[in-house]
Structures are given as C-alpha cells and as structure tokens.
Design goal:
Helix content: 40-55%
Radius of gyration: 22 Å
Distance between the termini: 40 Å
CATH architecture of the largest domain: 2-Layer Sandwich
Oligomer: single chain
Structural class: alpha+beta
Order of helices and strands: HEEHHHEEEHHEHHEEHEHEH
CATH topology of the largest domain: Alpha-Beta Plaits
Length: 325
C-alpha cells in the first residue's frame, strides 16, 4: 500500500538535499532529477533528455561532467558499452565547476536506473590521481582498443553471469509443455561476412573502418541491459538478458537491416558489407562454454546457408518459445 504522505515527504527531502538523485528509464531517458542533480548537469525543470544527448550537449558547452576525450562519439560508445550492464556500479567523476563526485548506478531488471551522486571534493585530494589511474586501468581492461565497445573479458564475464542466472528448473510459459520454457536470456555470436576478402581486396585500413562502423551501428541498436563486445578479429558477442530467442531474433533482424544500409568508406559509397549471426538461449544446467558453442554452431549454419542471416540453435527454438507456434 502506498503511503502518499511518506511519498510527499520523500520528494521534499530529495529536493532539499545536496545529494544528487536521478532516475533514467529503459531507454536511458531522464524521468526524474532533483534540484541538485539538475543544477550539476544543467537540466531545465521541464527537460527529459536522453543521457547520451545530455552528455554530448554538456561536452560541447564544457560544463557538467569533465570528459577527457577529443571525440565525444567515441567516448559515448565506450561508456554505453558498460553503462547499465551491471546491477550496481560505483565510480568517481569530476565536474567542470571543480567538484569531485562519488556516483552510484543501481539497475533494475527492467532497465530503469537510479543514479546517486555525492560531493567528495574535500576527501583526501592527495589520493585523487591514484584513484583516477585505477579507474582508467579498469576502463581499459573492459574496452576494445579499436572499436571502443566492450572487450572480450567484459562481455564474456556477462555471458558467465547470464548462465549463472539460469534457474535450476525451467520456468514454463503459460499453456506450453514442460520442455517449452522462457529462457533467462540469449547469446548471439556475430561475424562480419567475407572479412578476409575485404582486408585482402581493400586493405587493412578499410577492414578497420568496417570493424568500427559495425561496432558503432550495432551499439546504437543495443538495449540498455544488453552487452555487445568484440571477442577477436571480425567476431562479436551480444548478450541479451531476460530475452527469448524469438525476441532476440527480431532485435538482430533490425541489426542486419541497418548494417546492409551502412556505408563505412566515404570514398567508396558503393562499398557495403553484411554480417551473419548465431543465436542460442541459455538453459538450466548450461555452462558458458556450451552456450557459446551452440551459438557458434548456429552461426556456422547461417554462413553455410548463404550469409547475411540468423542461425538459431535448434534446442533454443524448442525451449525458448521461439518459432511462432
């Protein structure tokens, strides 16, 4: 039962505190921010900006968060690869007004996020450089150097977390037989088609342009709770928690269509490329290696059928409510 009086007092307390509080929805759009948060990030009372748009705007105006980067889009790609991907994250950041903040991000399974920031400017400023170096090292280990998205280490850790979240017993879908249950999530292995030919025919600079374009294109379509990472060469992994294979198939279908329209080489507007995907749903009793293997086999099947399409693990089709039945 909601206590309206308590809610009213809570709202008053949040508006009056120096602690900065904000709530973002599953699309990373600001839905609530108290006065302290709005002031720190220069947000009008009636504004509801998307987080990336807010960061880009403040970067251009040199206000809000200090962003040590020359290219805001590359910085955003890196941060979005980690933002909202764990249940709880804590880190330090500084503002252009000279303040140093301790920030926490708490995620709900539905993609909503609670952000809380406190001013720690006066706390041990002599240790700030050491803490910054630590945070930069952590970020580097979680980021792929070329594309700016999540590294192999980071995305594979999320694959392991997905498998650990799988229930010991399957949760059945309404009206289905015991073998037809809703997957705790899916993993997709994405591979750029004919990448060796692209490198051999056009050179490694074009190959790198394709990799960066692919990462940027897919990252724009990744949901807040999903994780995209590069695991090596032209191969990428997409982890989709709380998603059935038919839902994941629809998401990847949109990615296939978007990549077909992409033109990564400005000097050669006729140049285009595609990718193939293998999809598998996490099941009770899975281990990360087996789940990855099933997705990889599904990718191989998609390649054999002609590329530029999705292969779905047969067992996943049967056990994740996929296939339209």
């Amino acid at each position: 039962m909601v206590d309206n009086e308590a809610v009213m007092h809570l709202a008053q307390l949040m508006e009056g505190t120096d602690v900065m509080v904000a709530v973002y929805d599953q699309d990373d759009r600001l839905r609530f921010a108290n006065a302290a948060f709005r002031k720190a990030w220069h947000i009008e009372d009636d504004e509801r900006p998307v987080w990336s748009d807010l960061m880009r705007r403040n970067f251009m105006a040199r206000r809000g968060t200090v962003i040590s980067a020359d290219d805001i889009d590359i910085w955003l790609r890196s941060v979005l690869g980690r933002r909202g991907k764990t249940g709880f994250r804590a880190f330090e950041t500084d503002l252009h007004d000279g303040r140093w903040l301790w920030m926490t991000e708490t995620m709900h399974a539905n993609g909503w996020m609670l952000c809380v920031a406190s001013d720690i400017t006066s706390l041990r400023p002599d240790e700030r450089e050491l803490r910054q170096a630590r945070d930069m090292a952590i970020k580097a280990s979680q980021t792929d150097d070329l594309t700016g998205i999540a590294s192999r280490r980071f995305v594979m850790s999320k694959l392991e977390a997905l498998v650990k979240a799988a229930p010991a017993e399957p949760a059945m879908l309404a009206g289905k037989t015991p073998v037809e249950y809703r997957a705790v999530g899916c993993v997709a292995v994405l591979d750029i088609d004919n990448f060796k030919y692209i490198n051999d025919r056009f050179g490694h600079s074009v190959g790198d342009a394709v990799l960066m374009d692919f990462a940027a294109t897919i990252q724009r379509l990744v949901r807040k709770t999903d994780v995209l990472g590069r695991v090596g060469g032209e191969e990428f992994v997409l982890v989709l928690p709380n998603t059935t294979t038919w839902e994941a198939e629809a998401i990847i279908g949109r990615m296939l269509a978007e990549v077909r329209q992409s033109r990564p080489v400005r000097e050669q507007l006729s140049f285009r490329y595609t990718f193939s995907a293998g999809l598998a749903g996490a099941r009770a009793g899975d281990d990360p290696a087996d789940l990855y293997r099933r997705a990889d086999l599904a990718l191989y099947a998609a390649k054999m059928r002609g590329r530029d399409q999705i292969g779905i693990d047969i067992d996943s089709q049967r056990t994740s409510g996929s296939g339209g039945g």
